[in-house]
Amino acid sequence: MSDKDMDELSSSDSGSECGKYWVEWFTCSEGNEYFCDVDEEYILDRFNLTNLQTEVHYYRDAMDLITDQMNERPMSNEAREQVELSAKHLYGLIHARYIITMRGLAKMVDKYKRGDFGKCPRVFCNNNPLLPVGLTDVPNQKMVKLYCSRCEDIYNPKSRRHSMIDGAYFGTSFPHMLFQTYPSLKPAQTEQRYVPRIFGFKLHAAAELHRWQDEQRELQKRRLGIASNGGNN
Amino acid sequence: MAGPDHPAAAAAAHHAVDHADHALHSADAHSGLEHSDESDFDDEPYASDESASLTWISWFCSLKGHEYFCEVPDAFIEDEFNLTGLSQSVNYYVEALDTILDIEDDSNEPQFPEEIEAIDSSAEILYGLIHARYILTRQGLDQMADKYENAEFGTCPRVCCAGSPVVPCGRVDLPERDSVKLFCPSCSDIYAPPSSRYQKIDGAYFGTTFPHMFFQTFPALVPDEPISPYTPRIYGFAISERSRAGPRMQWLRMLPDPLPEHDDDDAAGAHSSDDQSFVEADDGAADELLPTATATATADDALTESMDVGTDRRRDYSSSAAAAAA
Predict the structure, then answer these.
(1) pTM above 0.80, yes or no
(2) What is the pLDDT of residues B245-276, one digit of tens each?
(3) B58-88: per-residue pLDDT in tens?
(4) Where is this region: Disordered (chain B) (predicted)?
(5) For chain A, how many structural domains are there in total?
(6) What is the CATH number of the domain that holds A154?
(7) How far apart are CA B201 and CA B228, in angstroms?
(8) How far apart are CA B37 and CA A147, in angstroms?
(9) Within an 8 Å CB–CB cutoff, is residue B317 touching chain A?
(10) Candidates B243, B251, B255; nearest CB to A217
(11) Which of A192, A209, A225 is the last residue of a domain?
(12) Which ranges of B150-274 would DSSP assign to H, the alpha helix?
């Protein structure tokens, strides 16, 4: 499939800013810090691309661009831009599939440990690192959100350039798949919480809600205790 | 804390030389005009006009990163009762107060740069502590309500709060302990401000009480019903809480259903003479809620269990449903 000479030729032509290859260039360009680089083998395996043809315009050209096999046929600037956009879209969709494979998860774990996705803004999460997550797997619907494994909630990215990334490029399953695969990475949960006070006195409504929520937590704990006993029997 | 562009510092530096009105300098420093000493003297007649347009307080509140502060009226600061106890917690109290109120005291000896810097930072602390008291008054709350309604404090980063505006708050009332945090009325939780320039602002300048006093005073400003909390899913299936990495923190965002109809339903069911339908209805609920537990239990067990579950159902539904779906 990939001709080595061809590869080198095209990359020397297009290779500029950051990396020799399109994927490298894409992942290290500004705003794309959340993406990891997808293995070329994964992209070249057609099985992994099932159904993406219908999703992406200029599929063939976009594919060639991603794999650095763009041939030098003349192309208007407009068409080139279109292909560039399609390539980014296609890469995002492949990325969503790739990061829930074993290899993709391992790469994302490295990024997670480096804190590439930012820290949880919630005060009681103590700067727990975040993971990107989509709210839907359908592209062009919802932007990417960030999942905190400590409070198990999702937040909007801080910076505008990250909040404009499509959530479907990460998918709804990714962070949960990661913690199912690496349960030891899940941080210890904290029961610490913010208690509203006026001049040092708790507020009745808030305190009542907290008591109820604590009750729910204890119920769940008891339920899980029962569940584990049931499993042993 | 105060940069070299601080007007008071600039003023004091000139103090020994030309005794110019420091408010004039503060105005000059911010209009971006370059003045030589001669032009300072030329401008002297207009000093009172310019100082009226920019007081120390409005200058301080217009600084980058000080967007959370509101302007405390002079009358509040001039009332000594409002400053009770602050003289002990701030160094150079008198000088700092004079700086805040733009009172020029010519009788003082020329000050050393270090001293000027100390007074400047004292003025900042003093203003912050006065601010924390002021925003608890009716007038201060009104001013902060305007800022809140314009979302000048930002919005909650939590997705399920759907961009609810937040208010600043502190975690301690003593200065120099912790930076300012943002309280979201929708989730009743506190968050770090998104921009690092707010991380230098002391939380004590807003106080622990303010957000709650604010929403007690303006209950209408609390956002309506929040969106249902986030449920982790893999390929569309909610993750079981029995899994090792399963959800354990759902309680934090859980809300009891405030539906009185449910209570009525339960009461009606309990008093209903038609026992058979009551049992059937609850049996169905039990199957839905505890598929594994009830499947193995005998019919009688299932009945008692289902009645227990039935009372908890309203509150417990979201987490149980998560478990059941997975």
Answers:
(1) no
(2) 889 898 998 888 765 444 444 433 334 333 33
(3) 999 999 999 999 999 999 999 999 999 999 9
(4) 254-326
(5) 2
(6) 2.20.25.20
(7) 33
(8) 58
(9) no
(10) B251
(11) A192
(12) 210-217, 250-253, 260-271
